[in-house]
């Protein structure tokens, strides 16, 4: 039976000793056991981009008693190209305003990286909050310049955590000099940074990979990405953040377009609870440190280079992997759901349909009960394009719509060109019992000349645990 | 701890003896006890419009074992004006297609009423389903014409219940003649009809009232309304239906505009789970039976009459009361939430903002935990107008936004013109412990020349019980 906890119920942060966060054995994460199905997602090593250093420390921003690090700097040793995508929420955090202004000012040229904190979202704090975010960015920039005077316009700022609270800015300013003295580029430095970004995450989120570019196939470039779990923290707001670094050379305009393009196929294709955070922000930095002197920078002008096209592919896949790590840690979720909408005349229409399905609370609750609930998919599909620019274009035609669930190579159809199909209940049970579930909505099944655009969305189920975590009402 | 029930989990309909549904003591509703806070919502008498008869019977459409009635006719004894508003879902039920076609054919003139069933939604059944719905409408029309030949174009059709199943049309056709022999206009006839429309409802939904029109202030007209609970039935779809009858005289074009206008301020202002059903439909009939022979019909042409304006007000309030009955029976809900958005330059913008807030799963989950979670309101507000026609019009200005919760005459502000306000925790606890909660978002607080448009939305909280009901995963 649900039991009401004392009001107001703040979610407790963990209080275990710092060394637990080292993950040597991946047993405990900030004092909580890491779920068995999450341990495989934590890397034990990585290939990190050259010329970047990373540091983190505990500055007392996360609640007292929590001993996880909560302050992070990720910085290039040399000026780098920078890019960012921001939440469009009109009540955005100070970090979003300050970083957006930095991008406007610099056009992404000559940046060094980002300073981020978890534990305080710095929203609804007015001019004082903006001043705090600015001071945090400037002091961090001064510190990584070895105390040299800096114009303060080289580091972006990120916040995540509880909203409507001022940053403990004195703590932050006090800890930044020490933090910069411990920066480095080892696996532990990166993993600790991922820990520092965490709030309600059940595991730290870090990936890295190497790649090459067509113009320099012998050169090994690296990509590293830090991110954090989505969902809003009861009773305040958390967020999704992403930090991506590469040692490939990319011009600022190309980097911005690459990031935006990859975000549209990754971070913009995930939904946990359908709410858009005030703090969401993904940044990327490219310093070219792994390039030979004659290596041309990846560029978009006067036209997209071959390297640009290749890198867009690499980055999109990389960021999709980062975004999936976020969904895998959705609050209270028991399933990882892939929604594939195909047969659309445009990517945007398919993406919008997938996004509406991903927000169907009824459908996601059904999946929790291991019910494919394909009627719920159709109900969502049936209203997905109402009041959008796609309405009235005949994109959804019931008689051409098929819905199926996929399990590896095998596909089980529930609806075939608008007609319900008898299904093998045993097979369905096998599919629905799995953690990973994929559903396919084909808008033009069985038609000869078929539009081919396809969009993929990743989401999770809606569970009793989600309600417990976000209401503070616990099941006992 | 949540325990998974055997798959697939169909929600059981009740199996108690028929007489329980009579409600003499309001103790049991189809075998389930009526929640104490719902009993006051069931009328013990009513003032029903003249010239209408109502009948219901069990035709075996609800699952076997259920002995509630499941087939209803509401009919005017004489040809009446008819109007309807329909779901826009592209996978609409056969009833919606058939009734929409009837409206197109007749323009709402010469209608008799509606035949409705619960227990089967008749969705995804193709031409056969359309044929069934047509046959149901024609046979019911034939029966209420005392077996006389009828053109079959006088009754609308409504379905609610499980989707993707054929209607048991033989049962329906078999029971219609008997049903029409028992029709009448007593309180019990109307209440039984409300029972018949129910699916997962915890109580039947019926209201009635009298009113007068400016042109005939001595004449007593009546309005009666039947409706049913919202939310989708696991594992299939249920819906909201509404049937409204009046003995005032109204022309068909006026009736359609009145119904649409009132629906926009009632049924279009409620949200349970954010999903749009395939079967939603509200119909209205006006037969003028209470009017004296010289009473002019309420008309819109050549311009809205005084009676039209007065009746619009009466009908809007009446349908708002019907819609609130639906929200009060939201699946698993523990709170009835009113969202009031004011200070908007347009009603539509305020309505859209309220609708987005009403769909914030995080906010509604917080309310379940008795947390005002006003950050959640702001997060929803902050993204509410993105990608809408209202974007970029400066409707949302953080520095002019206030958020408060109201308890009777008293208002507790959480945000005052963009600035968080210290609040009285004891007072907040009092407010949040109540079943009825009202939140006010003022878009232009403290400004001199203030836009005055205001929209109201009614919704509920998101609870463990909602998850249990829609997943089949029960808490033990």
TrEMBL record, chains A, B:
It holds the Pfam family ArgJ. This is Arginine biosynthesis bifunctional protein ArgJ, mitochondrial. Heterodimer of an alpha and a beta chain. The active site is at residue 239. Its main location: mitochondrion. The record marks 160-161 as: Involved in the stabilization of negative charge on the oxyanion by the formation of the oxyanion hole. It comes from the Eukaryota. One of its GO terms (molecular function) is L-glutamate N-acetyltransferase activity, acting on acetyl-L-ornithine as donor. Keywords: Acyltransferase, Amino-acid biosynthesis, Arginine biosynthesis, Autocatalytic cleavage, Mitochondrion, Multifunctional enzyme, Transferase. The record marks 238-239 as: Cleavage. The alpha and beta chains are autoproteolytically processed from a single precursor protein within the mitochondrion. It is found in: Mitochondrion matrix. PANTHER family: ARGININE BIOSYNTHESIS BIFUNCTIONAL PROTEIN ARGJ, ARGININE BIOSYNTHESIS BIFUNCTIONAL PROTEIN ARGJ, MITOCHONDRIAL.
């Amino acid at each position: 039976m649900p039991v009401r906890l004392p009001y107001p119920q703040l979610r407790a942060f963990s209080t275990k000793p710092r060394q637990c966060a080292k993950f040597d054995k991946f047993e405990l994460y900030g004092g909580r056991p890491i779920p068995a199905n999450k341990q495989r997602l934590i890397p034990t090593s990585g290939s990190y981009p050259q010329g970047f250093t990373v540091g983190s420390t505990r500055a007392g921003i996360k609640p007292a008693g929590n001993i996880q690090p909560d302050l992070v700097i990720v910085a290039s040793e040399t000026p780098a190209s920078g890019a960012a995508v921001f939440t469009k929420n009109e009540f955005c955090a100070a970090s979003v305003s300050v970083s957006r202004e930095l991008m406007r000012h610099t056009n992404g040229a000559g940046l060094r990286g980002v300073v981020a904190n978890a534990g305080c979202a710095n929203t609804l704090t007015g001019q004082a909050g903006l001043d705090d975010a600015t001071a945090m960015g400037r002091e961090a920039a001064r510190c990584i310049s070895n105390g040299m005077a800096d114009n303060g316009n080289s580091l972006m700022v990120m916040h995540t955590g509880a909203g409507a609270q001022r940053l403990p800015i004195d703590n932050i300013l006090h800890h930044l000099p020490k933090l910069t003295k411990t920066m480095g580029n080892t696996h532990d430095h990166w993993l600790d940074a991922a820990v520092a970004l965490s709030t309600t995450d059940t595991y730290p989120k870090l990936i890295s990979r190497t790649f090459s570019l067509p113009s320099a196939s012998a050169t090994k470039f690296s990509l590293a990405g830090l991110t954090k779990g989505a969902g809003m923290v009861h009773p305040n707001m958390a967020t999704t953040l992403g930090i991506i670094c590469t040692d490939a050379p990319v011009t600022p305009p190309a980097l911005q377009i690459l990031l935006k393009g990859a975000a549209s196929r990754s971070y913009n294709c995930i939904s946990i609870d359908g709410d858009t955070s005030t703090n969401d922000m993904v940044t990327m930095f490219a310093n070219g440190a792994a390039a030979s002197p004659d290596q041309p920078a990846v560029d978009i002008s006067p036209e997209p280079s071959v390297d640009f096209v290749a890198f867009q592919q690499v980055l999109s896949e990389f960021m999709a992997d980062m975004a999936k790590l976020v969904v895998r840690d959705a609050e209270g979720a028991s399933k990882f759901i892939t929604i594939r909408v195909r047969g659309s005349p445009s990517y945007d229409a398919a993406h919008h349909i997938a996004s509406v399905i991903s927000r169907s609370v009824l459908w996601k609750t059904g999946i929790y009960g291991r019910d494919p609930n394909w009627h719920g998919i159709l109900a969502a599909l049936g209203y997905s394009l109402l009041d959008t620019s796609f309405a009235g274009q005949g994109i959804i035609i019931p008689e051409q719509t098929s819905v199926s669930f996929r399990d590896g190579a095998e596909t089980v159809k529930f609806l075939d060109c608008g007609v319900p199909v008898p299904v093998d209940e045993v097979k369905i049970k096998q599919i629905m019992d799995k953690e990973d579930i994929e559903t396919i909505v084909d808008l033009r099944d069985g038609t000869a000349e078929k539009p081919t655009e396809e969009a993929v969305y990743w989401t999770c189920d809606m569970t009793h645990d989600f309600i417990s975590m976000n209401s503070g009402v616990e099941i006992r």
